[in-house]
């Protein structure tokens, strides 16, 4: 079961890393929020509620990639556990609605 969960998590992290890299193709730097506007480096997108603008900016590709690397380190520490430990199950929990989510996770 642990191997199945590890492979599932690796696939999700790979997908998220690929998406984050594609969102910052020019390496322009950090996203930021200013009131109703999200600054995507060279492009300002207005019209957001300020809270939503901050939420979008929080998902800056560079930050997402750092978070993915942290999750990969946790995954590596627990990948050989005989049964998915609580840490692996916690890492998997956001993906519970994914069609490939392991039934016994």
TrEMBL record:
Protein's name in the database: DUF6221 family protein
In its UniProt entry, the species of origin is given as: Streptomyces rubiginosohelvolus
């Amino acid at each position: 079961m642990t191997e199945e969960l590890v492979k599932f998590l690796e696939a999700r992290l790979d997908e998220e890393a690929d998406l984050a890299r594609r969102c910052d193709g020019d390496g322009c730097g950090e996203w930021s929020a200013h009131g109703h506007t999200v600054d995507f480096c060279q492009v300002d997108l207005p019209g957001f509620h300020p809270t939503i603008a901050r939420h979008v900016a929080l998902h800056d590709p560079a930050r997402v990639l750092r978070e993915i690397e942290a999750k990969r380190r946790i995954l590596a520490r627990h990948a050989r556990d005989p049964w998915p430990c609580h840490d692996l199950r916690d890492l998997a929990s956001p993906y519970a609605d994914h069609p490939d989510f392991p039934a016994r996770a």
